[in-house]
């Protein structure tokens, strides 16, 4: 089985990357790819060969829980 690690070139991870329908026409967004064993890789769509961040299912579930509960809304809110 292929090993996927943080920081590896995202272009080396096979699969179909998915981005939000709300992404801008010029593709500025985050793309996600489901990996084996429930892991997830994320990449910057403007740099598809750049580094990928790889997370476990538990890490992604904890992050989404925080998003759904508004814990990260300060990141995109004006001062």
What features would you describe in this structure?
This protein has 79 residues and is of the alpha+beta class. The chain has one domain (10-75). It has one helix at residues 57-68, and strands at 18-19, 30-34, 40-44, 53-55. Strands 1-2-3-4 form a four-stranded antiparallel β-sheet. The longest helix has 12 residues, at 57-68. The termini are far apart. The mean pLDDT is 91.
List the helices and strands and how they pair.
Elements: E1 18-19, E2 30-34, E3 40-44, E4 53-55, H1 57-68
Antiparallel strand pairs: 1-2, 2-3, 3-4
As laid out across the biggest beta sheet, the strand order is: 1-2-3-4
Strand segment tally: 4
Determine the number of helices (DSSP H or I, runs of at least 4 residues).
Answer: 1
Roughly what fraction of the amino acids lie in strands? 15-25%
Helix content estimate? 10-25%
Rg is 14 Å
Largest sheet: 4 strands, antiparallel
Distance between the termini: 46 Å
Q: Which structural category fits the helices and strands?
A: alpha+beta
Shape: globular
Uncertain runs: none
């Amino acid at each position: 089985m292929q090993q996927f690690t943080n920081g590896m070139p995202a272009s080396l991870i096979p699969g179909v990357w998915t981005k939000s329908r709300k992404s801008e026409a010029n593709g500025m967004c985050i793309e996600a790819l489901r990996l084996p064993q429930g892991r997830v890789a994320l990449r910057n769509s403007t740099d598809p060969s750049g580094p990928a961040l790889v997370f476990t299912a538990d890490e992604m579930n904890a992050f989404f829980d925080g998003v759904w509960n508004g814990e990260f809304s300060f990141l995109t809110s004006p001062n």
